[in-house]
Every structure is written in structure tokens, then in C-alpha cells.
Amino acid sequence: MTAWQRGAWVASLVLGLALGLAGCGGGEDDKPPADERLGGVAQPEDSAADEAAPEVEPFTDEVSVGIDARLRSDRRLLVEGTTNLPQSTRLQVLVERELSGVRWQARTAVEAGGGFAAGPFGPGSGLPDGGYRITVNMPAASVQPPAVRARLGEDGQHLRGPLVQASRHGLGQVISASQRFLVGSEPRHTTDQVKVIEVE
Questions:
Q1: Residue 45 CB neighbours (<10 A)
Q2: In sequence order, what E strands does 64-185 have?
Q3: Do residues 199 and 75 make contact, with C-beta atoms less than 8 angstroms apart?
Q4: Where are the alpha helices (DSSP H) in 28-182?
Q5: What are the tens digits of pLDDT across the range 64-87?
Q6: pTM value?
Q7: pLDDT score at 20
């Protein structure tokens, strides 16, 4: 087969394929009517795409966080609290011994009704007497569940009040609340604003 014959054969093959594909493919005019698609059952048009997502009411209250703690019989600390932050807001609870700077931390989330709890904190041998600082932090909105983020804002811009502060990492606004506690078996006299926790 000469080069000319080979070229003519390839050209006719390409032309045949093109005509075959044109006969198989349907144009816009070949589409069945909308009510005949999917076995003749009328299908609704994409009205869901036209509907806007429901508006979520932004968080408008001043943030409040109440912290309480109790010492179990094994001298480990349970931290409980209340807040008006939305349900499922992720929180981080930190307990620090003032004398040594030793810390324990745990993650928790706001439950229905605004309560949260974390712990127990402390070594297996129990917490020694002394002063402790309990801090409750709300991490950046970017790590919060979508429903919480929708209320607080992508950067926490809907948060307000004295507990609100700018994130150290430039991730918007976060929350931090702390309370001092004294752990001991008998009440102590102090001029500080501090709560004394006795063993149960």
C-alpha cells in the first residue's frame, strides 16, 4: 500500500467515525420533554437550588461564663459551668496549680441548656492543698461546628463582652474566662476573690 493509499484509507476511516458519532449523539432537539424523563414521571424543576439557605440568627448576647468546681473524694477536681454560648460550642478547660505551674487540660462542649463539664483533673494521688486557677477558653470559630460558626460568625465577629479577646494567632475573636480556687480541707482566710473548695 502506497503512502497515498494509506492516507486516503485513514481519511475515509475518520470520516466514517465522525458520521457514525453524529448519528448516535442526540442534539438539544432530541431530549425528551421534562415530564417524560425518568420513566414518564414528572420531575420537579430544580426549585431547591433557587431557594436560599435559611437565615441563622447571629449571636447577639454579651458572652457569659460561670465556673464552678468540686473536689472528689480522691482529691481530683471536677469543673462544671454554665454559659450562654450556643449548644455544641467547643471549649477547652485548663486547671493550673499556682505554686508549681503544673497544668491539666481537657476539651468539652456546651450541652443543651448551656451547661458544660470536664475532668477529673489532677494526678492520681490527688491535688495538694493550695491555689489553682481554672480557665475556660473557647477556641477560634474556624474549629467550631458549622452550626456554631453560623451563629458566632466565621471570625467570631458576633461575640461581644469583657470575656471576648482577639486570638493570638490572628484567627478572629475568642473567649477566655478564669476563676481562682483554693483547695484545702479547712477554709482559709484570704483577701483575694477566691472560692475555697473542701473535700467532699
A1: 8
A2: 65-71, 77-83, 90-97, 103-109, 115-121, 130-138, 164-166, 173-183
A3: yes
A4: 37-40, 47-50, 146-152
A5: 999 999 999 999 999 999 999 999
A6: 0.65
A7: 52
